[in-house]
Amino acid sequence: MSAERRIFDREIVNIPFIYSLEEGKTFLEGEWKEGITVDIGPVLVGGLAFYTDEELEIGNAIRLALFMDLELKKMWETERDGIPPIYEGRICRISTDEKGKKAAVVFRGLEKDEE
To answer: Judging by beta carbons within 10 Å of its beta carbon (0-12, 13-18, 19+), is residue 64 exposed, middle or buried?
Structure first.
């Protein structure tokens, strides 16, 4: 059986989210900022990208809470049993294009081993 490498195009999807560069397990810990996703992977959402003015470095830890629709965001005013869930990740790439600085995030546990 031969191994075939599969390459997927990323999908342009704009999902509102909040993120924190500070450690913690709840929404009450750390400063949170708003963002909008630029793209995500179509098969396995192993990360996302967003534009930012933050001073970030590759390897920075980041916590994210995605709001799949605006009604959920309106409904969420206080922390309620992990809704929406907080995802942990790290900054894996930083690039600049005509729209500004773009940071790519890989979710914790989905990083590729680097040798």
So the answer is: buried
pTM above 0.90, yes or no: no
> In the CATH hierarchy, which fold is given to the domain comprising 11-107?
Thrombin, subunit H (2.40.10)
Contacts of 52 (CB under 8 A, 6+ apart): 35, 100, 101, 102, 103
**Residue ranges covered by each domain of the chain:** 11-107
User: In a structure prediction context, what are the per-residue pLDDT tens digits for the chain, which is 115 residues long?
Assistant: 455 554 556 667 788 889 999 988 887 888 999 999 887 655 455 788 999 999 999 999 999 988 765 555 555 555 555 567 788 999 999 999 999 999 999 888 655 554 3
